[in-house]
## 1
Amino acid sequence: MKKVIFLSLLLLFSISFLKAETDTSNQKISINQWLIAGSASVKMPAFSQRNSVKGKKFKAVDLLKFQSKKIIAPLEGDTFLINTNHIYQWKAARLSKSDYVNIKPVKGAVYNKAWLATYLTVNRFIKIDFKTETRQCFELYVDGVKKVSKYTVTDEKKKADTKIASLNLEKGTHLISIKTLYNADKKGVWKLIASMYFNRNIPKETVTVTTHPSHFMDIDHLMNGKHLQDASVSFNGKLIMLRYSKVYPPNGKTESWFEIRDREHNKLIYSSEFAKVNNVQWVPGKEAVSFKAKAGGIDKLFLLNLKTMNKTVLLYNLKNTGYYQWSPTGNFMVYSINEKPVKNKSGLIHVVNMMDRWPWWRSRGQLYKLNISDLTTERLTYGYLSSELQDIRHDGKKILISQSIPNFLERPYTRQIMIELDLSSLKADTIWNQDFGGRAQYSPDDKQLLVTGSSAMFNGAGVSVPMNVIPNDYDTQAYIYDLKNGDVSGITKDFDPSIQDAEWNITDNNIYFRVEEKSWSNLYQYNPKENKWLNLHNKTDMVSGFKLAINAPVIVYYGSSIQYPKTAWSCNLDGSNQKLLDDPEKDFFKNITFGNTENWSFKNVTGRTIEGRVYYPPDYDQNKKYPVIVYYYGGTSPTGRTFRGRYPKNLFAAQGYIVYVLQPSGATGFGQEFSALHVNNWGETVADEIILGTKTFLKEHPSANAKKVGCMGASYGGFMTMLLTTRTNIFATAIAHAGISSISSYWGEGYWGYLYSSVASANSFPWNNNKLYVGQSPLFHADKVTTPLLLLHGNADTNVPIGESLQMYTALKLLGKTVELVEIEGQDHHIVDYKKRILWQKTILAWFDRWLKDQPEWWNKIYPKEDL
């Protein structure tokens, strides 16, 4: 019986091989470029003649199965293995005229191992049969995943065995690696030949073979790597703290840690790698840090002295503890504890207001004080309202706290109470109680507050648009508030960028801002005495964060650029002496090639400039035609020049697309007049701008294929995608992720729908503005759609509920339109699950390939036709 099964399998394999080799619909390409490392002598382990605990003996082939070294991005001349005083480097393999790789075993060695590597670059999704022929044992890997193996040595008198790996390769560069074992006792030659077969109708140049690891941006570099998460500086400017996270395939497990380094020499002082700590902060006035970590199964707050490396426990049992903040004096800290309500077990939920739908809303945060000298704690706040710490006075005598109460009769539907609490008497003095709230911090002399928030704060003290124009509340402004007399100065009223972060520096009494400035995020210095602004000319396109040294003229910041991951920098307070502190992904991206980018703008029908930018494929040829992806958000914030991101334009360009990104009217960072255009518009202006911008772009870029243009956006951008498909047929296809199809259902059902609408639809409601809620909702115009549309949605989305895509899908299906819906199981507004995000990203690329390149194979592989 066993013999029959073996012969059947052998026959099946022979037929499969014969089909690949003789199929006239296939074409053959020999693999004639290899890198080789070895051969290297390998030895059987001690006591290999004994049985293991599983009753098995160690066999020679187990030397091959054992993964002694993983092959990662091999390059000619690089060292691969150091073994018994011998260094094995990757070398170009010498091939025979018939493309065989002949491997020479080590003289006198019984067992030898060698490693081979090459790269296949494919310019489209393609199915390939990869054939390997050898008498010896081997394992073949594609991008680190084993695809086929051979664990027996073929007798000299017989024909060499052939193994075929059927591969579905996505556009990009793929590492093919082989490890092979030679057993001198078995004799025979040690040689190997490989070739590949694919459809004859596909041009031969679709696949190229090379031994250089240079390639374009891919999903691996989008998702994985060592990511810089934060950068800060000690009080004296001598030390820096860098926080990292590292993502590991194939499951996306993430490790987070921080490092302390000497700023001048970059010498490592301390690393928390593998220690699982979080919430790390500098201790004011000391070369010390505090952090949360688990010890003995209990979460604790530690203080680490960086001079002695001694650790002290500051707080035990941090259950329900949230944030904490050191006092400027360093002798106490204020921290929060989250108090949870009694659990409702009735099965019925009485919703008292819209915020009560949020699962966390009934929990309340209260503040506590920890004295460092004796580690005693004191409760500072109590009650049914949460108290949020805003700042601690420089002398440590008072703190700023804020409370929020619902007020559903007026925009923005909450009131903020700003309170100054005396820490000696716990007496609370109300500074303001108003509809529009913000963030506040003390001035260096504690006599004023620096406040950031809507331009509508303080009775519109920050508004620069005419009285009949409703400003965009997401366009954040900055104010100086006098604690003695309540006078307010809107210091950014005539400053176009939108405020992201602010810090009032005690060293020079200037205020430092991180701002959203058109497509960039920049650092500015503001002199409040002279009312002067100074651009610090940061080295990254998008500053993600910054910190000031308390007692030194030093700024540390970090961020990414349009074609480069996050780096950390330091500079003087005037922006001079820019110094690179860390470039953690330099090696990870050293083999990645990017295409060119350029800024490109046009004027809309009113003459207003609409800015944008273009990403070109890395192998761009101006004499060729390329499909185009038009990307936009269209909502209240611009699409920044960030690297990576959920909608990675560099990845789209690497897939062979010209990518056009535009910043339609209504985005912040362009001034209040521009951002106010978002209010009560809901695409009325923006849709026309996207259409005009796309037409103008195509006219001015001859290499853009006007017949193969796709558009995409997410959230508000997904709404814009749906709306565009009801207004124009210039797009060959469209993708909407988490889009809004009916403004009224989003307004009422999404967790934050009514709050976002308090800005985007200010003073407009379904009962008083039918033109907006119906006229601008794509669902009510679904019959006008002619563009193939892909709807993507996380089915746990609480921001834009999945019903927004479901009802649009239902409408289009009943109308007989071309539409597909893909739900992402268990995901909210953003797709964060590692494996699901990769498949979601591939779904986007495959859909565009289907409609913009006439290549449906990838889509059909992911979503094969089902007879249902």
## 2
Amino acid sequence: MKCRSTEEVKPLEGIIGQSKAEKAIRFGLEIEKRGYNIYLSGLPGTGRTTAIKEYLEREAKNKPAPYDWCYVYNFKDPYRPKAIKLPPGRGIEFKRDMEVLMENIKINIPKAFQSEEYAKRREEIIKAAEEQQRRILEELELKARRQGFIIRSGPTGIMVTPIINGKPLSEEVLMKMREEDRKKILEAQSKMIEEVREGMRQIRMIELKTHEEINRLANEITAYTIEHLFTLLREKYGENEDVKTYLEEVKNDIIKNYNKFLEEEREGGAEEEEEIPFMRKYEVNVIVDNSQTKGAPVVIEYNPTYTNVIGKIEKESRHGILYTDHTMIRPGALHKANGGYLVINAEDILRNPLAWEALKLSLRQGNVSIEEPSELAGLTTVKTLRPTPIPLNLKVILIGTPLTYELLIKFDPDFKELFKVKAEFDTEIDLNQENIEKYISFICTLCKKEDLKHLDISAVKRVLEYSSRLAGNQKKLSTIFAEISDVIREADLYARKENSNYITETHVKRALEEKFYRINLIEEKILELIKSVTILIDVYGKVVGQVNGLAVIQLGELTFGKPVRITATVGLGREGIINIEREAELSGPIHTKGVMILNGYLTEKYAYDKPLTLAARIVFEQSYEGVEGDSASSAELYALLSALSGMPIKQSIAVTGSVNQKGEIQAVGGINEKIEGFYKVCKIKGLNGEQGVIIPEGNVEDLNLSDEVIEAVEKGVFHIYPVKTVDEGIEILTGVKAGERMSDGKFEEGTINYLVDKKLREYAEKLREYREEK
């Protein structure tokens, strides 16, 4: 490292050590066929979201800003608002132009109808109609008088009444007249009534015609008044056919409803509320505004509910009735990311089934359609808007765990067709010069972004050591950047308390110690139980058939190792090795497999000239929870070999490692925690210089121990023994040579293998004798 602190390096650009994932992401973004969306697989904390966000933002800069989208009123089908596409920034401009247009119309139309020309032409139409009506009435009255009738208005309408000597004829006088005279009068009256009715019909037709002529005049005046206003907009948006069509529909609707613009200002809430929906018809709802967007949009939806992803139709209540219109349509993440990239956490959206199904439907159809969630679920609902769908052109990046990916592949048939690109984030990267430099740049970026103190070279080294420990390998660095970032943030606190210019190794070390101290209460309690001999663990002396195995306990953030006593008993029988944990239903399948492998080892090693005659019991003492994993299989085998050979095992040495049927010791997980866990037990019981741990040689590269354990090893008060085979391990545990098989097929006398073979031979002979006696 050539720098003295992270202050001297440049901030990070790009993704650290994820070349495989980066190549997959690049492929997914370059291919523009449908279905090539990306699933970004990785564990939480690996910086997946931050990395993909920064990568997409770099890519987006080189792409053009996408179109604006607006919803406008549909004059042919009010329940299906129309979507209009406009160049970026023109959506808001079009909305403002429409607002200015309507303001001008609201001013100009009343002025036009207050003009002398309109009043004169309207008066001419009315006077001509009144003259026609007057002539019809005069002719009817004249004709009626000639025939001996008068026309009067009554409560039930127009009445035709007979007269004699200029006076109306009463009903009483009419009834006293001769039948013949009365009949003539009534017949004449009936004919006159028909003629009056015809005259009234003609008058009504004149009224209707007059109304039509006035309306036609009003339409003509309105059209003339607003035409120049629309001409300006048509010229401005002439290349957009959708806008031209919409403007024509708006103009025709205004002409049709000119009277709405002539009404004087009203008083009273009911009338005011009645006016609002009408004027909203002409409003433009810009749901996607890219006026400030530079390049393609990058949208990260942190709360992917149905409405947040697809959009929603809001409602307002008036007099207890829910009301909605096109101005209440709200966009979802798909609208905002259209023409760019949408990033969603897979686990989050899967917790919202409707959102997940709607997202898949939108990607399948290539458009986004805003619907009520109840409609999508197939439930009945009140009639509402169904906006026209908006075409989609975007990449969706799902961020999730490997397990989620496998479950989706297995159980969701649509997933594979819609997310054809998988990019995998590794949890570890190679510890090389390039990645070290990038790691330091990452730390620099974090410090600058969050205003933390920079790290000096000693602190950087300590952080890298911790990262390597998280990776579980000396030649790797962890990509769980959330863990690394937390340590740096906490170290910054201690640096500030000391008014230090930089975060130093001391601050990082304290942050790690304090973090572990805050969560290790369970470990402390277990150590107390071991110290008080409530849990029996020996770290001195030798015992036959007993060995200290090592287990790892993980409780949330806390991971620690603890020793566990493993014992084996043997006797004459044919049962073979019986796993007591399995019999008690406390053994997991991998642990059970590990015990079964011991049978295979014993058979190959010792049953070449005799049957394997053995009844053995293996158990984890004081184990009250389930046992899983095969990392204790070598310890179980050592206990079994000790019981068969009669050679005691050193209790000062603990064992971890799995074994195969050939007697090879295999690497296991949690090696650092196991070693440190046994060291802590030895420390509280008293270190005597003989204690240590046998580990698989394959785990040597994984060692990344605490300073205290390293110091103890360097001083020779604690030991670590890497082994390749069972024979190497049993020699360390017993201090007795394992023994090689000689040319005659027998083992060297006095060795562990010789004693085991001898015991198994005795069991076989005794069993044969027992059978012969029976």
## 3
Amino acid sequence: MPELAQTFLTSVGLLFGLIAAGFLILKFIISSIKKPGRVARGLNLELFLILIPQDEYTEPGQQNLKKDRERVQTMEQLYTIFSSMVEKGGWRVFEFGQPYLVWEIVYIDNEIRFYAAVPTRYRETLIRAVHSVSPEAVVEPVQDYNIFSPQEEAGGVAAAYVMTSRSSILPIKTYQMLDVDPLNELGTHFSKLNSGENAVMQVLMRPSPKKFNKLALKVTKKMQTGLSFEKAYHQAIKSWLMPLKIKQEKINPTMTPQDQEVIKAIESHAAKPNFEVNIRLMVTAPDQSKAEAILGDFESAFTQFNLPNLNSFSESREKIKELVYEFSFRLFDENKKIVLSSEELASVYHLPHAGLKVPKIKWLKARSAAPPWGMNDGPYLGWNDYRSQQTVIRIAPEDRRRHIYIVGQTGTGKSTLLQEMIRQDVEMGNGLAVVDPHGDLVEYTLAHIPQHRWKDVIVFDPSDLERPIGINMLEAASIEERDFVVQEMMSIFYRLFPPETMGPMFEHNMRNAMLTLMADPNDPGTLVEIPRIFTDKEFMKQKVAKVTDPVVRSFWEKEMAQTSDFHKSEMLGYLVSKVGRFIENTMMRNIIGQSKSGINFNEVMNNRKILLANLSKGKVGEVNANLLGLMIVGKLQLTAMRRAYIAEQERVDFYLYLDEFQNFTTDSIATILSEARKYRLDMVMAHQFIAQLTDKIKAAVFGNVGSMIMFRIGVEDAEFLKPQLAPVFGPRDLINLDNHNCYVKLMLKGQTSRPFNMKTYPPVPGNAETVKVVKNLSRLTYGQEKEVVEQEILARAKLSAVAPAQTSAEAKFNL
């Protein structure tokens, strides 16, 4: 009998051994089948960087805590969106597992980043969900990051799973019970990391099966009969596994207050959407001991979720290679899953908000906004990227007539935008002028001139001393034009010289001199001849003979005739000191001293020519460049006004590009901006900061310009432009714009659009050989030989008769 019993026990043991071995073999086979599917599921995840705008709270502290909780609560709603992310059963689910999302907080490159990884089919759901939490957030697809050292043996790596100490049926402490946002403590540990140290909190989530909620309710039901949580939980598990073989034990129906609190907590926990979750912590550092210490700090941050008598978090250290493998491929580990409610999950991971007092977070630098519809015509300015939707930004010819204003610091992308606008105008056959104080804009344009437009190009380059192109500002075809020229020249002088060196007498004498030199339209004088008309009586009489204006004649025949030689000499000193610096400069004298301009501005504007003025300050000098630029703008304005005699339908659009426009405009810009659009002189004005503008020019620009393009600027300018951007953007956005990004208020079909963001296109490569060919063709066509020009100027101006004198006032200002 004992032998029989022994044989029976041996057989039973062998049977159980075979069953266990079979179970292990089956588990290995299932694991082998599932492993490729798990990896495939991980590889199918698409990674996104989430950037949230950094707003500021203005309310008292208690109000801020309420706002913090409201912000975190929105993450609960976000998670709820994914509570139905379940695929139907079958072989696919068996092989690949259920789909899941991954949320990550990453410290790398000395900043804290927030990521999400989602199956490709759910990418749009993720983007919409994030925007439901933060409408202005940017959800940007990115390449994966790498926190590990490229050298296998270099540095230390520490990692752990975060688990619950007791069954996940029992809740943990959530943000609703804490006095501060739980992410503050966790984020503080991230922000304390140094260069060479990296860390990640990785949270994988998928909807929990309904059986979890049923199990929780079954436990509470049993506890209501008087069982402790442990006994109720074990009986619920047994009844779940063996529903027909559970023996009911006698129980005491009396519940303690503590048990009642546990029941209430479990029911509240089960009432919310629940998710199966993996939480991993991964740290890399220069050495292993440092990595372990950092990991310990992060583990300690989870103690804030401890809920006495209920549940808490604990850590599970696994084989590092296996954990790194699962972390890197973002694999869901069935053996390390816990269940968290949407409230608990939002407490552990949520997107940053204004209440977080954590440095180094990678915030959204500048917001984006949707562009207007209907931009189907005209050259493109750039493109808008809003919520993964890209839109080309164009401006129609009729809207360009209201002018374009561009502002931005050096290097932000203004020149790139101008380059591409000019290049398109050239390709489309438009007429245009470019006034460039640096030279790069002109050089770029020359490299993009198509061969069929080579003959349309006029390159005005004052530094070309051998073949100077003349510009005579004193050319005028009518009395009205003469008055305009005189007024513009006076504005130019006031623009170039301090007002202390001007005065009413200077203006009076200069006006009469210029009006006299312009009296003969067939033989106009030049600025170089202004000193001569005061020193050469015969020349003065010759010019006055052509004057028909009695006021101007009276100036010479009465006022000047009665002025003593001493006062004439004193007056001459003031006059010569203004024009003398240009007359004495060979380069400038050979340009402004030619009686006939080498450029026919009527032909330029009406026949769609391309005028490129290279006024590089480094080659020409700042004052010289400003004078020439002011003269060119004045000539173009005068030419535009002549279009009053041309039928409106025959006026072609002409585009005037002014870089650093504050140097090339006078107070008459208000007239240009308000009236020039009728004559199709369409301006594109760019500069660096608002303080460069006088009050009158500032008022003229912001009162008349239709389209505004704003690149990154300083704090003071951002505050000034705040009304232009509200309510879509604020000063912080404008200050934080990246290079080649800008905000735009576009004139569209006669109406100003709401502000939106825009990125500029990169420059298009040009042809260096074209630059040489076009320059040479232009100088031969429009320039004059230096010797010929100098002989004419010497003969007309009689420069030897000029004896310039500098007054004490001039000397004071070093002029």
## 4
Amino acid sequence: MILYRYIIKEHILPFLYSLGIIIFIFTMTTAVQLLDKIISKGLSPGVVLEIFAIQLGWIVALAIPMSILTSTLMTFGAMSANNEIMAVKSTGKSILYLITPVFSAACLLAACNVFFNDLILPNANHRAASLLSDISRKRPALFIEPGVLVREFPNYALWVKKVDQKTGLMQTVRIYSDVPGEDPQTIIAESGELKLTGDGKNLEITLFNGETHRINSKNKKEYFLCRFKKQVFFLQNPDTELRRTTRDYRSDREMSSKMMIDQVNGYKKTRNDYFKEHSNQLAAEVSRIKSIDSLIVKYPSSKTVSDSTGAFSAWAAGFKSTRSFAFDNLNNKKSATERLLSKINFQNRQICQYMVEVHKKFSMPVACIVFVLIGAPLGIMAKRGGVTVGASYSLFFFITYWAMLIWGESLADKGIIPAWLSMWGGNIIIGICGLFLLLRVRRESTLFSFAPVVKFWFFMRQKTSRAVPSAQSRISVILLAITDAPYFFVRKIAGTLPTYLIKKFVGSLIGIFISIIMVFVVVDYISNLPRFEGATIFETALFYWYYLPWLVQIVSPIVILLASMSAIGSMAKWNELTAMKAAGINVRQLAGPLLFIGLCLVGLGFYLEEQILPKANILRRELTENIGRHRDMVKKKTVESNQNLRRDFYYFGDERNIYFFKEFRVSPPKAENVWKETYKGSSLVNKVSAEKAVFKDNSWFFTNGTLRSFNGNTETMTAFDTLKDTLLKVKPIDMAAQIRSPEEMGYGELRSFVDKTRRRGEDVSKYTAQLYSKLALPMMNFIVILLGISISARAGRKGGAVLFGIGLLLTFAYWIISQFGLAFAQNGQIPPLVGAWFGNSLFLSIALLLYAKASK
């Protein structure tokens, strides 16, 4: 029992580490997919956290089998490397005895996972689907922000200069109305008060000391101006509350196995009814054919057809109506049969889809047991228990298992293979491989013997070494010299010890980067196979080449943390840190080179964000649009048309001037039903109304309109054929087009875009937060290095395993908090600068505190 407890204990930490990393990876991909859909909805932090907490259900269900595989490989690999396996065997215990506790634990986890997948996960998926459905119906949050044109009210737009969010008091209020069937009007007031009506359905706006301007749509010369001391105005309140609904419909992934089997029984009953109907149709047709045959026998034809063409035509004409009726009857029966067969095929597809999900609820938990069977012998045969070996084997087998699962599900849904085979095929294949390896390990025989290959290789090397060195040898020497050249210069500048540490860090950095990026690519490809339908291998490879900069940016913090901890932690493991401290070298001196690399990575991250990532995102988007171009041509044309035409378009020339274009076209640059208003304080002093406007020679020209000036109680009107606007010099494409998404712009371009968006009177919280994040995100690279050094330097006192777990947990929390801070800043719930830098500020403080303690 002591040995069993020891084996289980050795599995716990690798299992938790693996579980944490896998959950982190899937949570990142989920956050990237969901945050863009919910940031504009004005959700409370509690609702956002609820969304991600519910999503953890399927992530945990998928992560547990892979974590078992990784921990089994690492634990048995370490035991084999430390000769513990040999020591146990010397006592007469077999390999089956060693894996018994792990196998039992895997069976227990599998049973718990079956219960979780069948009873808990469906309800979690149902709740997640209902919540996301409710969120999709929710209107974006309404914030009355100063200087922002709020257009959430149907047919109305509201602008205020200052507003008190607590009391609802406003200063310099402007309301623009464009109600269909009514004349457009502008209401300006010195101040106002905003509050909700009792039922919450409307906003009651009380305006003080203002004026109303309205122009007759049919007769431009008629103008209405009314001044008031107080006016009450009601606007319909947009649906800004998240209304939770009860959703009765459940998809297959929202049902328990009992629910799905009931559905399958219902589909089978309906299918049997269709089979009976089809059989009855066939029986009726057979009976009809038999009756016709009997009539032919009973009443044989007594007429002889003449050989002349005229006589034949006269004879055939008598059958014309009968033939037409027969063809119509045949087509109707054919259509009825095809419809019936289509219904039967639909029932078959539904049965297959539900049965696939039923088998999946049991096959994935059983994978916990199968991965123990494959992981234990592989770990023993590898005789290494490092993260690299565990991650490599785990990645290969889990990707293989998942690919068979996805591929089998696709085939089963089409009815090509049975549902049970699609879900259990991976378990069967990997289980057979595991049993085979267990048998080989039990007999202490190798899986494959490479001795003849190695012997032949050395023979050829010795034979060629007597002659002139081969080109391959020279290339190897050149490549080795190239890779060692940077370290040579670093050694000359910084010394041997910093170079040694940097070499460890860079090696770990590259290895972990490659591993995590491979996981991302494979997971993304398998999960989004429909996206690549019709794509060539070259297009798929090119897509992920353009995808690479974004992946590097996202995973850099976790990779840099693990690399720094691996470099410092390995030195602590082999007592190199103790020896250095004994020689008078403290942690600060040792950390100097890595901190310098951290600053270099900050600069590299900013360069990636500014120069490479925007271009790669543009190319990836264009490539995605061109994949299956024949399917998306109509959609693409629609998008281009929407970018060229804007309706009811407002644009601020400056704070005193606002333009309105009923129809605004980028190409050709023109507009219809245009007006421009100029304000002085809370009064309108000039208004230009025109039928059309044209942009040429870097200026706007109004045509067929009127110019009105207001000075107290005096109004003057001037009609014009053409009037040049001297204020607005911005090109139409810059005014209207949201040229690219923020992810496709560098810092300078995004800052310019924020200014243009603000001039259109739109909310810029989202873009401002992303602007600040372009500086905050690269800074994470330095902070995680500092965090990794601080944690790993204390490994000698607390143990590397515990500290590694703490570091992983901190990085996971770091990334999540940073993403949520950015999301809330984009919502406008917190200031953009605070949201973008909150995660950095918090964890920089933690890193500095830990670093100070580690330096003592």
